[in-house]
Amino acid sequence: MNVRRRRISGIAVTAATALGLGTLSACSSDSSAAGNTDKFDVVASFYPMEYLAEQIGGDHVNVTTLTEPGQEPHDLELSAKQTARMGEADAVLYLKSLQPAVDEAIAQSDVKTKIDAATLTKLEDHGDVEHDHGGEEHADEHAEEEHSEGGEHALDPHVWLDPVKYAEIAQGVAKAFEKADPDHAADYRKNAEALAKKLGDLDTAYKDGLKNTATKVFFTNHAAFGYLAERYGLAQEAINGLDPESEPSPARIKELQQEAKADGVTTVFYETLVSDKTAKTLAKDAGLKTDVLDPLEGITDKSKGEDYVGVMQSNLKALETALGAK
User: Fold this and answer.
1) In DSSP terms, which residues pair with 218 in a beta bridge?
2) CA–CA separation, 199 vs 214, rounded Å?
3) Cα separation, 309 vs 311, whole angstroms
């Protein structure tokens, strides 16, 4: 293992402060003057990858993230400093197709261990989920749009919102850490087992909480919850596509208003990192409530939970309320 001697960047310290992450803040306080000589240095592309690296790596890793708290990850552009830092790392952990700028930088980087979470589980095409009632033209249009954004075959990258698939990724990350840093392999395995239990408990909570509901349909701002919906027998209807910034057509809005009546939908969900304007307009026009369903692309002080598990538990409560869990 070749852990470089260097100081943690300001971004990492900011992230640690904002997220309250014990491991990272401990690293920064230990190394503010001397730099890291005994840490496995991991660069994570955005929060769900950062969380895995910290949970599995524990005290043996120094984790920095390319996406700052509060930054929308889909739109990330890397600075020269971030690209350079990636090249100095022992490992980089990312999810191919979510952030084209990251994919490009990693492809050109000589970092020894490149861990692509998309290869550690099966990604699926949820690209036309929100157009189930909108005809083939809509679906084709959307698939083309996703392909142009770097999504190969319009595969849905939001896989971390399914605790089961996220656990599969965690297992693969642990194996990659063990191989790259064999001195601490036993601890990585132990930490991965602890994380698997947390994610297993979360999966059980979702199964039990959403087993018996008045409706199975929920409206979201963008189509981030396809895996979660599929896992727990729900139907996601998104105002926008997989791209959170796209604008829905008037026909799509009208369609959703009609569906809300037909399927007993009570709530339009929006998220913390993207404008809630369209969701609130639809809710007002259709006489629906609004609430937050967080796609966990980043943690901020507005997040309803301090970490992945906390926010997922908050999401479950919001879904139980909106779907009329019994």
Assistant:
1) 236
2) 26
3) 6
- For 324, left (φ over 0), alpha (ψ -120 to 50), or beta? left
| Contact indicator for 221, 244 with CB cutoff of 8 Å | yes
The C-alpha angle with vertex 179 and arms to 30 and 6, in degrees rounded to 5, equals 30
Reading the chain (326 residues) residue by residue, the pLDDT tens digits are 544 333 333 333 333 333 333 333 333 333 322 234 479 999 999 999 999 999 999 999 999 999 998 888 988 999 999 998 898 999 999 999 999 999 999 999 999 999 999 999 999 987 544 333 333 333 333 333 333 333 345 799 999 999 999 999 999 999 999 999 999 999 999 999 999 999 999 999 999 999 999 999 999 988 899 999 999 999 999 887 666 666 778 888 889 999 999 999 999 999 887 888 888 888 888 899 999 999 999 999 989 999 999 999 999 999 999 999 99
Alpha carbons 2 and 39: distance in angstroms, whole number = 9
